[in-house]
Design a protein that fits this description.
This protein is mainly β and about 800 residues long. The protein has seven helices and 43 strands. The chain has a 22-stranded antiparallel β-barrel. Strands 8-13-14-11-12 form a five-stranded mixed beta sheet. Strands 3-2-5-6 form a four-stranded antiparallel beta sheet, with no helix packed on it. A hairpin with a 7-residue loop joins strand 39 and strand 40. The protein starts with a helix and ends with a strand.
């Protein structure tokens, strides 16, 4: 049978023989209907919400056994095994939970099944099964429009990602609704919170503008992480991983369960790896502690998370001439003084794909970040609850550099006299430090009835950061002490927001949603930078971010939505401090996001599509312009856009096969782009008017597939595939500066060992890149004119070939 005929047969089997209906009503203990209760048919694609009368319906079910699960905030989850032979009517009465469930803490920022927002939620079991030690971006890599990158080539250490081509410093990340994204850079460094997924309940990714949230950078996507919630029973778990490149991971987690009204959890983790890139090693440690007081109407919970990372720097990547084994090009680099002679020889004689420019033994990034959170939630009555959370985040650390032939004047010192003659320069070791405090308060209150729910929330935070550099050794001396500080900059940022979201059920099938947010930012920058420039400046912004949408449940299987959202984003610290004092200063960016979607769900078939058009005003981009000391600056582009379609499909057949696929097809353009290229011959800039160009790092196609086969009762095998089309690494649409398309395939085996010694014993084996694809998923480039010819400095980040991770999970 041909493949097309087989797929048609399976679809016909799903549709023709699915002839039963299941309807029901969800009520509270007093018999009152519960609207917006979540109803799930386990191990199918069927998910729905009850209407204003508490009713739900599932259509076209096959004659099989199903596990139905019904959940509602503040109530115990209802489960029942049923066999659908004829149309059946269920009357479900939910019992109030003896303790207030922790979902109330994050409900204000989360999208529900009937929200007009493109979103994906990864649950606890999936997180647990997929966590073999790689960072969060690699755990989320199979979600729509998502591209993960890794400096060391393995997903351990410094990682990054983009959603719909949107970079990480425009993606808002929160943990339990509290901002994680750095207030100044807007980026999230997951390496600073290593193995946090060992203490995660679920993760939700919202694409587009999404719901109003707290913190900076909610400008195209947002991610919220919910940490471990209350377990009713005591738990103890061990998870260990061994893999390629001397990768080791050990994690121990324990929990007391609910002991009276109190519960405590703790987790310790350590991950080490040599990395694929030479010396791209990581040493990561973390501790997670939580304790709470729980009653039927109140939660008071404290969370402490601390992560320490030390990674050898693999930030420079590998030059394109080296990757292409272009010996003439390497010589050209040497002739242009881009590398010393010894480094060029090393480039020629060492492995091209694992090459690391740095050889100094302590060229490391060392950082510690501590998170303190205190959450309070109280349910005044079945319809009204209040959440208040306070937080404090303390981060401090440095990256160490060996620098040769450094001029003393660049460190604000006069040349020392050695043997009667001044010495103008020296080799030295320096550390660039960041020391910051970030603290604030967030709140939300929600009122619900059968027709509507109203949420009012917001918060305020203060970031107080210090940026400074110290010289800890100099070959020729000349520094006042061994910890000489040559620059010190400050940043104080005050951010507050207030939002109101109102959902109203216009009819039994149609929901309307309005979300309005006001945000105020005041940002003060002071001191001097590492190039001794005065940074003193002040900025203030006021943003209004409206959103509105409709969700229409056509019937039990079909639904659709439309949504409009506006987001505004202030420039980050680098945009301000690197701006040319004599040029145009950066201003805020505005995104108008138009989205629409459709979804079909049956027991064994899922199909969904999202259409989006994201129009940017004043998007900050790299044009090649530089400031007065030669640093690249970002400039506002007047007009640009991202437009695309996201397709999702799932198929469950013959009870042993699951196939989940998604694909994004997009067009990402800057209108009327002008490039600036530094001319080393004349000292000025060459201007190239290029017209319409592609936005950098925005592939036209992103596709993922996960095909799972149940080989036996205890053994599952998954075949995971990811395709990313070619993408340009600057905004010129020039084929000389791009990443090639890549297609990577992984195989994962999950085995449940049946035994009586442990509560649970699972084995996992992940074989990455089974076909040994040679590819790079990230890069940088700098162009210049020299001897009247155009040259480039660049760095590409090769990813590991075939490699493996083996993991064991033991539950006690």
């Amino acid at each position: 049978m041909k493949t097309g005929s087989l797929i048609l047969f399976l679809l016909l089997q799903t549709v023709v023989f699915a002839q039963h209906h299941l309807t029901g009503t969800v009520r509270d203990e007093n018999g009152g209907p519960l609207s917006n209760a979540n109803v799930v048919m386990d191990n199918t694609f069927m998910v729905t919400s009850t209407n204003s009368e508490g009713k739900f319906v599932f259509k076209n079910l096959k004659d099989e056994n199903y596990l139905i699960k019904v959940s509602y905030l503040g109530y115990e989850t209802f489960q029942k095994q049923i066999n659908v032979k004829d149309s059946e009517i269920l009357d479900i009465h939910l019992k109030r939970s003896p303790v207030l469930v922790e979902e109330v803490l994050i409900s204000a920022s989360r999208a529900s099944s009937n929200s007009p927002v493109a979103h994906t939620t990864i649950g606890k079991e999936t997180v647990r099964n997929e966590n073999l030690g790689q960072d969060i971006p690699y755990l989320l890599n199979m979600t729509p429009s998502f591209v993960a990158t890794s400096d060391a080539g393995t997903g351990i250490g410094y990682t990054n990602f983009r959603i719909r081509g949107t970079d990480l410093n425009r993606i808002n990340v929160t943990m339990n609704g509290i901002p994680v994204s750095d207030a100044e850079s807007h980026s999230t460094y997951f390496v600073d919170i290593p193995d946090v997924v060992s203490s995660v309940e679920n993760i939700q990714v919202q694409r587009g503008v999404g719901n109003s949230t707290n913190g900076a950078g909610a400008f195209g996507a947002s991610i919220d992480i919910q940490t471990s919630k209350l377990d009713s029973q005591a738990i103890a778990n061990y998870s260990g991983t061994y893999g390629s490149f001397n990768t080791f991971r050990n994690n121990v987690s324990v929990g007391t369960g609910l002991n009276g009204k109190f519960a405590f959890n703790a987790s310790l983790s350590k991950i080490t790896s040599d990395g694929f890139i030479d010396r791209g090693a990581s040493d990561l440690k973390s501790v997670f502690l939580s304790g709470g007081y729980f009653t039927a109407n109140t939660i008071l919970k404290a969370i402490v998370f601390s992560g320490i990372e030390q990674t050898y720097q693999a930030w420079n990547g590998v030059t394109s001439v080296r990757l292409n084994n272009d010996l003439a090009g390497m010589q050209e680099y040497e002739d242009n003084y881009l590398y010393s002679h010894d480094q060029t020889v090393n480039m020629i004689n060492s492995n091209s794909r694992t090459y690391n420019l740095y050889t100094y033994k302590n060229q490391v990034d060392h950082y510690q970040q501590d998170y303190y959170q205190l959450h309070f939630s109280h349910k005044f009555n079945p319809d009204f609850n209040l959440n208040i959370s306070g937080f404090y985040t303390y981060g401090r650390g440095y990256y160490e550099q060996y620098e040769d032939d450094q001029d003393y004047q660049d460190y604000n010192l006069s040349a020392p006299v050695v043997n009667g003659a001044p010495v103008e320069s020296t080799d030295l070791i320096r550390r660039k430090w960041l020391d910051n405090n970030f603290y604030g308060l967030i709140f939300s209150s929600t009122y619900k009835n059968n027709k509507s729910d109203l949420t009012i929330g917001g918060g305020g935070n203060i970031y107080d950061g210090r940026h400074f550099g110290r010289v800890i050794w100099a070959e020729n001396g000349g520094f006042p002490d061994n910890d000489y500080q040559w620059y010190h900059g400050t940043g104080i940022k005050k951010d507050c927001n207030l939002y109101t979201r109102y959902n109203y059920r216009l009819t039994s099938k149609l929901n309307a949603s309005v979300d309005l947010q006001y945000r105020h930012i005041n940002y003060e920058i002071g001191g001097i930078d590492d190039d001794l420039r005065n940074l003193t400046q002040s900025h203030s912004f006021d943003f209004f971010n409206p959103k509105a949408g409709f969700f229409y449940a056509i019937n039990g299987q079909n639904s659709m939505y439309v949504n409009y959202g506006r987001a505004n984003r202030e420039p980050n610290r680098d945009n301000f401090v690197d701006a040319d004092p004599a040029g145009k200063q950066p201003t805020f960016e505005t995104l108008n996001d138009f989205e629409g979607g459709y979804q079909f769900k049956s027991a064994h078939l899922l199909f969904g599509t999202n259409l989006y058009y994201m129009h940017y005003k004043n998007q900050l981009i790299l044009t090649g312009q530089i400031n007065d000391v030669g640093s690249a600056i970002m400039t506002n582009a007047a007009d640009s856009y991202r437009a695309g379609v996201e397709l999702m499909a799932g198929l469950k057949f013959l009870k042993i096969f699951n196939w989940d696929i998604n694909a994004t097809f997009s067009r990402n353009r800057i209108m009327d782009f002008t490039e600036y290229v530094e001319n080393w011959d004349s000292g000025d800039l060459r201007v190239n008017a290029l017209g319409n160009t592609d936005i950098a790092f925005s592939p036209d196609i992103i596709a993922n597939s996960k095909f799972t086969c149940k080989l036996s009762e205890n053994l599952d095998m998954s075949f995971l595939s990811s395709y990313v089309s070619s993408q340009f690494i600057d905004n010129t649409s020039n084929s000389d500066r791009k990443l090639d398309a890549y297609f990577v395939n992984n195989v994962k085996l999950d085995y449940l060992v049946k035994q009586k010694l442990f509560k649970e014993l699972k084995l996992h084996c992940l074989i990455n890149n089974i076909f040994d694809e040679k590819y790079e998923n990230n890069a940088w480039v700098y162009s210049y004119i020299y001897n009247q010819q155009r040259y480039k400095m660049d760095g590409y980040f090769p990813q590991a070939g075939t490699n493996f991770l083996f993991s064991i999970n033991i539950g006690f």
